Amino acid sequence: MDKGVNPDRKSPLISMMNTNTEVNRNGVNERATESSQLMLGNDTVEDQAVRGRQPVTGTTRRKYSREDNRAVMECYFESRPDVRGYRRRMHDIWRERGGFDISEQRLADQVRTIKRDDWFTEEELDEIKETIQGRERRSEEENESVRVDEQMNEVPPRLATQNEPVIDPAVRIVRDPTSDMEKDLVDRIIEERNRLSRDRPRLRALRHIERGKIIEEVKKIDKVLDCVEIRDVTELNDTIMACAKIVTEKICGNGERRQTRGPPAWKVRLQQKLEDIRSDLSKVVECRGRDFDDPMRMRLEKKYRIRNKGYDVVVEELKQDLSAISQKIKRYSERVEQYNQNRTFVNNQKRFYQDLQGNGNNIAGEAPDKEKSKEFWQGIWSEPTKHNTNAEWVNRVKGRLEHVDRQEDLSITADDVKKMLGKVPNWKSPGPDGVQGFWMKNFRSLHELIRIHLQKCLEDGNVPEWMTSGKTALIMKDPAKGRQPGNYRPITCLPLMWKTLTGILADKLYEHLSDQDVIGDEQKGCIRKSRGTKDHLMLDKAILRDSRKRMTNLGICWIDYQKAYDMLPHSWILETMTITGMAKNVIDLIRNSMRSWNTELEYLGEKIAEVKIKRGIFQGDSLSPLLFVTALIPLSILLREAIQGYKFRQGRKVNHLLYMDDLKLYGKSKTELEALVNTVRIFTSDIQMKFGLQKCATLVMKRGKKIEDEGISMPDGQLLQDLGEESYKYLGILEADRIKMEDMKEKVRKEYYRRIRKVLETKLNGGNVIKAMNTWAVAAVRYTAGILDWTVNELREMDRKTRKLMTINRALHPKADVDRLYVSRDEGGRGMVSIEECVRIEECSLSDYIKRIEGNEDSVLDSFIKDQTAAELKKEKVIKRTDGWKEKPLHGQYPKKVEEMETQSWNWLRSGWLKKETEGMILAAQDQALPTRNYKVTIMKEQGSKKCRMCGERDETVMHILSECEKLAQGEYKKRHDRVASIIHWELCEIHGFRRCKNWFEHRAEPVLENNDVKILWDFNIHTDRVIEARRPDIVVVDKVNSQTMIIDIAVPGDFRVKTKESEKVEKYQDLALELTRVWKTSTKVIPIVIGALGAKYRIIDWMALLGVDVKRYTLIQQTALLGSANILRKVLSIPA
Asked: How many C-beta atoms surround the C-beta of residue 23 within 10 A?
């Protein structure tokens, strides 16, 4: 029978077309459920109008005849299916031929059905293909003859330049899926992508999921993305989001963000148990003296056996149960808190520090008033303004910038996309589109499409509206000021596609401004390879010092702009982009995109209002700060032209400093200062911005001394007030006629100690505690280095108090070595940054920077120059600290002996996972600084015996307690040994396919494990026909396939005996190895696994590799031994001496 019309062999598609044919006027089966509509394709007209679909008519579906199917395949072959975009072309050809109305998707589905179900033979398909190819050849020949005639009179087309690439997204070849699995995945991606137009979920951030697990799923999808048709940047973004949703659902089930969960199950269970015990306790007390036949007493009697135990015993037991469960809840809660704090610190330090400050989240119940907030922000953003185009100074600025070369139109390269995506954080809060950086970075097969479509946006000079829609969270600044709208800071999140585009453009625009030397030295905002605010603070300090030293006149004015970033007119942004010579295609893109800039105000996830951005920069991307800096370039040009300003002895004139919108003016008199202020006022007025008068101030000095002044009056009657006796906070530093050294030092010290206390009060692990203090607390002091004149005693006092606070919080042993605290963890120290060394190195670093930018000229910053470079000083301090520690007779014993034995013990320090208390104890033990009897008598010169408090036979040293005391051998030593051995056994079970627990500490080794390939014996007494003393090793592995036997024995000796112990173990079991070789007919090897009680190792990694055990497990073994040792030390030293 003809395959094309076989009635008994209907495809699933035709079967679906013959069912549910009752269709309403919108083409949707009213009886079908929503899920069945999705399956059958019976979407609404609006849904089918999504990309790739055409509206259906109100007629019923029809069956495909053989002629229809042939026409479908002709359209398929004519559409060039091996080239990207074939489905759209096939649908266009179908409509041109007058085919009945059908959507693009359904037409493609029919092609798949025809090919899958073999409705045409191979010969028939070849014949159809030949027919189409013959038509194309004839058409091509006709067109060729016409082209030859036309070319005779045609002007040769202009060749595309390098900056004008021909972009045709349809050129991307879309291959057909090669398997059912690929087809299903492609269909799922397209289905999810189409669904995003109706419902856009907010996905979970997978920052806490193992990266390898996510990448594995990402690669599966990445391989089939070349089967997905993507025609524009919107489809591209939706494809990324759809793929992200599929991966997230695969890993986490429902991919949408989870709502805030209640208390964990263990806590609910224990709290319920606590309530039950409290209830029973009160009932037991209440039942005292009641009759035995009382129902309540009978129930309590059955539960607690009150008659046998007595009331007092039962009451005491219940009270102790209450106490024990309460402590368990507290202990478990602290453990959870410890885990969460360390996880947050590792994944997002900024968030961790915000939580420490107490402003990680807004205070519930302090939401801003919706109507007032909407009115406030619409009043700022939604009222468009234009700068004064007739201002005289505008033409002057244009004249000064006539020399600037016009930047050629920009194009986006693959390297640009790769470089920008490399900077994108993985899990930062997304914009309204929901796409996070991780997905855009790791779906690598789409990177070329990102380049193509972003280039297309740049060429078209516009972007889709969704790319310029933001989401603005309002963050309260000062809780004391209440709910007024101005007390909330807007933080805007933009779509990542827009941020990628503007980030690439920002880099290229900055290069242009830098090459043309347009920005000027007075502006340090957004300036790369500079010290930012430090540049201005050093120059400001030099001006104030020079004025006092030379007793010259000086006028100062601090100017603050009111809502500077939000008030800038769009017309002025575009004007400054033009006069600074930026690329025309970028200007066109910004101009057109400005029309659709908008954001949705939120507070704690609750929508407040949607606001159009008609003025101000579109905050949230890396281009906006550069546009703001560009908008103030004309101000710097006008001020630079002014004759007013302060002159140094060397002749250099300075009349203003700018850091973004922070402006400071200098004049040699009040008259000059007024002239400068007037210039700034005119500029500010013409660009429709305003001074924030509350934060503006003036100061006048005569002959190097501050004088009282009434301030500077503005033409509108407003006054820039004189600073008076107060101080002004300029770029974080308090100053007036000079920097307020003592006030600032006291403020910095308080902030530094506050941060140190905050960190030490957390439950961070030892390594993270040190990192937090180095990065957060020390930063408060480092910023002032070179600006404040710190003395040696002041810095050393801060270091001493830091160590004292660490000791109080049990992070540092009081007798531990001081130098070791500041040695890097790679060298065996704790890696703490010394305040003294930090400040001195930063001062030398500033000196190096000044030498680099100023050269050998007579610089106004000579007072900051140091003889030594930062690298030289740092190297000197490192050597001094390391040698100072190792050369000490007591504290230096451990590192010297460990180095002599060629062993290593610092891996656990590098990982830094131990609690700060345990880390401090282990280091004190290595320093021989724990209060053992030997230490008290020998070092502290106390009266008493040096003998061990446990065995009473040998001197009680740290090493004796940890590995040499006979009283501890069968108890604590064996427990520590068995924990280490359990890790090896657990790993061997995994390697050889035996069942094991998920966590190693839950593992219970069985005496014998055996399968077809391997036999593993645990603590088994090997039977031999000869007398062999050592025949009970910890583990024996018999490889039946390769006829090999491995005798494994574990030891945790004192660190100074690690190397010797390995040799002893090999020698001890050598006789057994020879016997097993003879009896079992296998090659036998002795493998010692030896780890020092305080973490030292020799060849353990090599032995582990021989076993096939992951060498990364060495760190786990080391940590287990250290925890066992710490437990032994605590128990022994807690016994009264």
From this structure: 18
